[in-house]
Amino acid sequence: MRAFLIRRLLGLVIVLVGISLLTFLLSHVLPADPARTAIGAKGGQKQYQEMREKMGLDRPLPEQYVRYVQDLLHGDLGYSYTSRRPVLTDLAAYFPASLELMLSALFLAVIIGIPLGVMSAARVRGPLDRSSGAFAVFCTAMPLFLTGLLLQVIFYKQLGWLPAAGRIGLVLGEPEHITGMFTVDSLLHGDWPRFIDSVKHLILPAITLSLPAMAILIRIVRASMLEALGQEYVRTARSKGLSEQRVIYGHALRNALLPTVTSLGMLVGALLSGGFLVEIVYTFPGLGMYVLNAILRAEFSALISTTLLVATVYMVANLLVDMAYVVIDPRIRYA
Amino acid sequence: MTESPETHPLLRAISNRRAFLRAAGALGAATALGGPRWSPPAAAQDGSTLIFLASDAAYSLDPAENWDYGGGATILSHVYEGLFKFVGADKVTLEPNLAEEVPTVENGGISEDGLTYTIKVKPNAVFHDGTPVNAEAVRFSYERTRTLKMGVDFLLDQIDTITTVDDLTVQFTLKKPFSPFLFSIGGLWGNSIVSPETVNANSTGDEDLGHEYLLFADAGSGGYILESYDPDQKQAVLTRDPNWWQGWDDGPHIERVVILWITEAATIRSMLERGDAHIAANLTPEDWDALSTMEGITTVEAPSSLQCEIVLNNAKPPLDNPKVRQALSYAFNYEQAIDGLMGGHAVKLDSVVTAMSLGYAPAATQYTYDLDKAKALLAEAGLADGFTFELYALHLFLNDQLLLEMYQADLAKIGVTLDVKVMESNAFLSQHLNGNVDESFMGFISNVGPDYPDAYEMLALVYGENSKPPAFCCNFEFFTSPEMEEILTRIESALDPAERQAALQEGFDLAFAEAGVMWLFNFKQLLGMRSNVQGWEYSFLLGANYAPFERMSLA
User: Fold this and answer.
1) Residue A232 and residue A235: Cα distance in Å, rounded?
2) Which of the residues A15, A109, B203, B475 could staple to B467 if both were Cys, CB 3.0 to 4.6 A apart?
3) How much is the ipTM here?
């Protein structure tokens, strides 16, 4: 297991170097000029040249990359001329919000998607199976921004039950930061009003983001369960007189979980990057809003750092998934 | 986090099962019943908190750096004060603010040679920190902006020295006579007076001069105090200063202003409809139309100072021929653009500045949609068979590309082929402004607005030799005219209003006759507000992101 972990971590480093190189090159061939953006349209040519030198843009591209990596290794992710602070500080401010949204959406997708998939497989072509199939198609087909707007119209504008924007109410203000995730922080402080308020702000964005993931889980779990239910060990279990519930949850589901867990690892990346659009729709101040501004203002450091962060989360999630295989299926061993 | 784990209420609750269940039950009940209402509605209903949805983001809250509407017009204009201020929605006028009066040659405030401006500060003005606003504070503020050189200092380029004559008298000496000087220090940008005490107490050195501190804090004397500014959560809060030196009437007043930057147009509209916001600074034309028919909401269409232009590169053939540029000006269908693509939310420009600006007068030559005239001018220029050129849309505003595509169809009718291209604005400007005409582009569609509402500034910025690339904004068209330079010099030195106006008129006429730039229209801003908002007035200079909170209330 240790050798496996070392191999995977080395692989993670190699992939991150590759991603940093790719994003660096891509961002520098884009027809955008961060120095001009930083000084503003009314900045003179002298200021512009000074800013180019300050940003190192006057140096050859390979040298710029080497400098960037050197800084990166020293924990310096660059400086944002929009927020006027280090990119690392920006990421520390915005990443917890995106992580909170992603985890909430994943939680919803799992607690609804997996049971629905199991129940659909248990009664194939029954009313529940057909309904969940239609629901999955609907969730997959609906663009995130449209779902977001629809939910806003229903639950904010018409019913007035839930807020449409932000992470927490203005009067309450942010809880004292521990993790940066408002629900967790307010809970740790025992601050129920803030906890309830931040949960209410999270509900609509989390539902919006979770629906496509839920659809994928429903279909994957259903297919895996159908395959498992057709296996001989299930027939044996049934012939032994075990209850159907025991057969499904005790035998079939455990075997059907492997592909489900694999898809969870993939979903983490999709939810984190898909959440960017949801954040913009709900003015949810996470990485999505940050990346949007970074793109508009050609802030290369912010763009590359965010990409690296998302890639790291994705790869760590998949590493955890691989490790979870050992727990789910004792037959699996990593040399 | 200083609290030990043992003292965490949650951990305490979990360690006591009954307490935990009670808490969880309370939580479930609160959630099911709706819990506390989302705070904006609660705040919106308290009768003294106004929720303002700003459109432009706040780039910087340091007055020495700020040059935007979101931070400047929405926040700084209430937290800080200048010596003067512009008032008026339709036609602006300059009024004293911290200054006792507007100096003139007659009252002795301006020297006969137009080089020295002596300004008296009101004796009772105080900053939020309790220190007096005096001549030294004025000198300190301007010197701070000039020292920091964060961009906005260009508006103070004409100043040679600033000295204090006595505790309440400050004297500006200019490098040369500059008639728009008072207008240039009457605007918001570069003219906020900061408290030396607060700045010095929070400065980390001569290079900082309190800059880092002022990005999030307040050193002003205005009617409102900056309570908080959270760029991460996209919100700011202002609270009324009950001790404001200008005093308050009996009220009621807006005690608290919550400023939100909401990105999604549908959310902005919903918040206004539900009463969760009082004013939305920028509505889409569709939302504005829909809200205009709704009860409880007032919609306003107000002229902005932003002007739409097509920049033609005067240094590149065949656009170096004025007849070609005139032909292109006659080939634009202004009416169709304004009524069609702009949905009627724009006004055709008949001068270099909008009708609301100081010194405005229509130019002698006017361009209307006349393809026959355009054809004839092309023939006179030896281009009867037309020519091909390209214009760029930089997506600086909605529909800019569509406007060029509409223009493309009309130009085809006179044999001119227009290639419409799109490019990211900063990359475009970097190349276009590098000063090398050969590397510059043929032209582009853009918008431009004044820093202060005097016609001189637009004339100098758009047509002046000093504004040509690479030196400065905004002679993007490489307009070259010794005649215009002479006119600009005359305007600068003219202390007599009639003489000045005559020179301005010559400038407008020359600009339109040469057609260096095609002036299309000025935009209208579309706002919405709840009907209980009282006392709102539009500011032409500061636009929709400004509202006079000091004179407003909620019914």
Assistant:
1) 5
2) B475
3) 0.73
